[in-house]
Amino acid sequence: MRIAIAGGTGTLGRYVAEDLRTRGHEVRVLSRSSREYRVDLRTGEGLEAALVGCDAVVDASNARKKAAEVLVEGSRRLLAAERAAGVGHHVCVSIVGCDRMPMGYYRVKVAQERVVEAGPVPWSVVRATQFHELVATVFTLGGRWRTLPVPRAVLQTIAAVEAARAVADVAEGPALRGRIDVAGPVATGVRELARTWRSVTGRRALLVPVPMPGRLGRTLRAGAATEPSPDVRGTTSFAEWLAAGQ
Ligand SMILES: NC(=O)c1ccc[n+]([C@@H]2O[C@H](COP(=O)([O-])OP(=O)(O)OC[C@H]3O[C@@H](n4cnc5c(N)ncnc54)[C@H](OP(=O)(O)O)[C@@H]3O)[C@@H](O)[C@H]2O)c1
Predict the structure, then answer these.
(1) What are the tens digits of pLDDT across the range 179-189?
(2) Residue 120 CA to ligand 1 centre (angstroms)
(3) How far is the CA of 42 from the centre of ligand 1 (A)?
(4) How far apart are CA 223 and CA 125, in angstroms?
(5) Could you give the 3-state DSSP secondary structure of residue 126?
(6) Which CATH number goes with the domain that contains 210?
(7) Element (H or E) spanning 165, and its range?
(8) Which InterPro entries does UniProt cross-reference here (predicted)?
(9) Cα 7 to averaged position of ligand 1 atoms, centre (Å)
(10) Which run of H or E residues covers position 80?
(11) In this structure, are residues 60 and 93 in contact, taking their beta carbons and an 8 Å threshold?
């Protein structure tokens, strides 16, 4: 198959691209910094040429600032271009519990899913939990001053490479017109994740509990970002992933 990965240079997207190539597919990496297919989802630049002859598209793009422009409006642009190119399957990568979390970025993810579900191309949604990579980055940045703010929240982090495998499995198959949930091996409090990070990496940082007031705090403490019975469960724990020096 010929498969395009929007956001194929990102944390998840590069693993999806690698995995699908290993399986023998022809993979096109689409992003603003891609050497092969320079595409900007904010404007639609480069999309038409990038999608010629593609059987499936994985959307692994992401943006923290002005996220809706890339994830929602970008999805509309991407889907319209896919339709014009005759693409038969659009795979949207989303986040476990995004519809339970009262926060701007998660609302954008829900809006992105809606656009995909109502769009002109047969679709699948793969929701994943937070990546080990994200949590490790936050700890590394947050721990620079040897104090690490730790909210009382529960996460079920997964190695991006394992989430990517699940995304690649879906991309190879027929459109689900539905969703699967992919989650890490175990739900863990952020404090415990921070302790693990400290002991495996040898970094020193004082863990400082920070209150998370309001509905967002309550939902995160209650495990809204976790999935006890995912369709796919990763096997590599945060400790194992850190120890492997990823
Ligand atoms: N990170 C997590 O913990 C996590 C957990 C669950 C689900 N997810 C979901 O997984 C997906 C990928 O997340 P990620 O963390 O792997 O993202 P990421 O590392 O931030 O990568 C984002 C990708 O999007 C591309 N991109 C950004 N703006 C673009 C634009 N205007 N046009 C075209 N490409 C653009 C980037 O490349 P350029 O900068 O070169 O354009 C890059 O390849 C997202 O849907 C996210 O919601 C993430």
Answers:
(1) 999 999 999 99
(2) 23
(3) 13
(4) 21
(5) strand
(6) 3.40.50.720
(7) helix 160-172
(8) HCF244-like, NAD(P)-bd_dom, NAD(P)-bd_dom_sf
(9) 5
(10) helix 73-85
(11) yes
CA 45, distance to chain mean position in Å, is 23
Using alpha carbons, list the distances in angstroms from residue 184 to 4, 93, 107, 170. 26, 16, 22, 18
Residue 144 has pLDDT above 90, yes or no: no
Nearest to 185 by CA among 144, 235, 142: 235
Q: How far are the Cα atoms of 58, 93, 114, 117 from residue 178, in angstroms, in the given order?
A: 15, 12, 11, 8
Q: Any idea which residue has 């904010």 for tokens?
A: 42
Polymer length of the chain: 246
How many domains in the chain? Answer: 1
Residue 130 near ligand 1, beta carbon < 6 Å = yes
Per-residue burial over 26-48, b if 16 or more Cβ lie within 10 Å, else e, is ebbbbbbebeebebebeebebbe
> Residue 98 is part of which domain span?
2-243
Distance set, CA 135 to CA 31, 140, 150, 239, 242 (Å): 24, 9, 11, 12, 11
Confidence of residue 142 (pLDDT cuts 50, 70, 90): confident
Residue 33 Cβ inside 6 Å of ligand 1? The answer reads yes
